[in-house]
Write a structure and sequence with these properties.
Layout (H helix, E strand, L loop, with lengths): L3 H9 L3 H15 L6 H20 L7 H12 L1
Organism: Hyalangium rubrum
InterPro entries: CHP02574_addiction_mod
Protein name: Addiction module protein
Length: about 80
């Protein structure tokens, strides 16, 4: 069985669109029944909007390595 580090490494090698799809499915797997159904509908719409922006190229994604570098730079 692959470790989470192996899985993450494999996913990070995917093209941005496929990474976005994996991220979306992971987020969906964590969702619990919302106490406020309207909030759940709005959140789902927001997730879909963001996924479309990644897929159509209107937003630029950055690699996890770039995110780590930015965090490290801010934390010193």
């Amino acid at each position: 069985m692959a470790t989470k580090e192996d899985l993450l490494s494999d996913v990070l090698r995917l093209p941005p669109e496929e990474r976005a799809e994996v991220a979306h499915k992971l987020l969906l797997s964590l969702e619990v029944e919302a106490e406020d159904p309207e909030a759940q509908v709005e959140w789902s719409a927001e997730v879909e909007r963001r996924a479309r922006e990644v897929l159509n190229g209107s937003v630029k994604t950055v690699s996890w390595e770039q995110v780590e570098e930015r965090i490290s730079a801010r934390l010193g």
